[in-house]
Design brief:
Elements lengths: L1 H7 L10 H13 L3 H7 L11 H5 L9 H8 L6 E4 L4 E7 L7 E8 L5 E8 L1
Antiparallel strand pairs: 1-2, 2-3, 3-4
Length: 124
């Protein structure tokens, strides 16, 4: 599924996936340095898009984090619990290894076609 999605970036491949599965795809795309896939996983819901794909391409790789930082930030996200806070918003609550005593939140937005996607700047 990840392979098919990264080939054509068609979000229909994501239809029916749980938010945690989408988050895991996002983390994998970040680890793989597939910035086009990362951007395609962001929400396209009107009012929630924070920057364009063209602007995204200008972000230097030094600002995207190292593999070690990404692994540390998103460790345990697969063991998280999805909390839906509205019809189209929610977050994955998980125990970060960076903040041993506190939980992290990974914000998700449901697009108009009913597919969960990653909020821009998802970490809360």
């Amino acid at each position: 599924m990840y392979y098919n999605f990264q080939k054509d970036l068609n979000e229909q491949h994501l239809k029916g996936l749980e938010p945690i599965s989408i988050a895991k795809l996002y983390v994998q795309a970040r680890l793989d340095n597939k910035n086009d896939v990362v951007y395609a996983l962001y929400t396209n819901k009107s009012g929630y898009v924070q920057w364009s794909k063209e602007e995204d391409k200008k972000i230097p790789s030094s600002d995207r984090g190292t593999k070690e930082q990404i692994l540390k930030t998103f460790a345990n996200i697969d063991k998280g619990k999805f909390v839906q806070s509205s019809d189209f918003e929610g977050y994955i609550e998980y125990q970060s290894i960076e903040e041993a005593k506190s939980k992290s939140g990974f914000k998700m937005i449901k697009n108009d076609d009913g597919i969960w996607s990653v909020s821009f700047q998802p970490i809360q």
